[in-house]
Structure formats: structure tokens, C-alpha cells
Design goal:
Helix content is about 75%, strand content about 0%. By secondary structure, the chain is an all-alpha fold.
Length: about 170
């Protein structure tokens, strides 16, 4: 019986985070990333932006410690569900979809670690070159645009109350 209650309330808590996940995706789809930042407007480029923005949100929630552990997990589950749906829309079948999701989760984890390290004094430009431009030459103006955009978003997320974020109120 307890398992049934957890599933019911777990879904309610997870569903509560759907507006935040939609805001992450909307931010990642902003044309400025692709136009001014010259992020490749491809499936990979769009994935890279969703992963980068989601990583910033997860890092922000991480600052709240244990109280944000469940929301972070549910937000990550929404990401997995979205990626699963995207893969299936593109005709990826059950047999290999799990492998693709595993690689995507590895990529998300890699971005989390790389951004955490960059914000602790590492090289954010290098992280952007590797994880958003995938080693392609982006140009200094485009790189600066993405760097400044990510730093601005990080600052806005840091200033936003956790409850507001969880409710899907995107910081302007």
C-alpha cells in the first residue's frame, strides 16, 4: 500500500516540476543561442543547449542541499522522458533507445561536472568549446555570447528563490 501512495504522490511532485522543465527547454530554444552564439542549430546542438541549461538549473538546486535532491531527481526524470520521446519520434526502437538514453545521461552528467569545475575556477570557455561547439571553431564573438549568456543565466538562477524555480517561474 505504501508503494501505491509513493507512486501517486511521486508523480504529483514530478508533475509539479513540468513547468520548470518546459522553461529549461524554452530557454534552450531561444534563437539568440543559435544566431548570436552560433550554436549549431541541429539535433546535437539543441540537445547540447538543453543539457547546458538543465545543468545550470541542477547546479542551482544543488546549492539547497538535501532539500532539493528530490526536485533535482524528478527534473532529471522529465529530461529522460523528453529525450526518450524525441528518440522514438525519430524512429529509434525499443532495442536501442536505452543505449541512447544512457549516452545522453552520461553527457548530462559530464556537463554537470564540467560546469561545476569551471565555476570553481576552471575554464568556462573550454567547457563551452567541448560541450556546446563540440570542438568546432566558434569564433570569439560567438563564444563570448554563449559564455555571457550562461553566466547571466547562472546569476539569475542564483538570485531566484528555490520555490519559485520549482513552480516554473523562470528568472528574468
Amino acid at each position: 500500500m505504501i508503494g501505491v501512495w509513493r507512486r501517486l504522490f511521486g508523480h504529483a511532485e514530478r508533475d509539479r516540476l513540468a513547468p520548470l522543465y518546459r522553461a529549461v527547454v524554452a530557454e534552450a530554444r531561444r534563437p539568440a543561442w543559435y544566431r548570436d552564439g552560433r550554436v549549431p542549430d541541429t539535433l546535437d546542438g539543441r540537445f547540447d543547449m538543453v543539457a547546458a541549461i538543465l545543468s545550470l538549473v541542477l547546479l542551482r538546486l544543488e546549492t539547497d542541499g538535501d532539500s532539493a535532491r528530490a526536485p533535482s531527481a524528478y527534473l532529471t526524470e522529465l529530461f529522460v522522458d523528453d529525450m526518450d520521446g524525441q528518440l522514438r519520434q525519430r524512429g529509434i526502437g525499443d532495442i536501442v533507445v536505452g543505449k541512447h538514453i544512457g549516452r545522453m545521461m552520461g553527457a548530462l552528467g559530464g556537463r554537470l561536472g564540467a560546469l561545476r569545475e569551471a565555476f570553481a575556477g576552471g575554464d568556462l570557455d573550454d567547457v563551452i568549446q567541448r560541450n556546446i561547439y563540440r570542438g568546432m571553431i566558434s569564433g570569439s564573438a560567438a563564444l563570448a555570447e554563449v559564455r555571457n549568456g550562461l553566466l547571466d543565466l547562472r546569476n539569475r538562477l542564483a538570485a531566484a528563490p528555490t520555490e519559485s524555480l520549482i513552480e516554473g517561474e523562470w528568472p528574468e
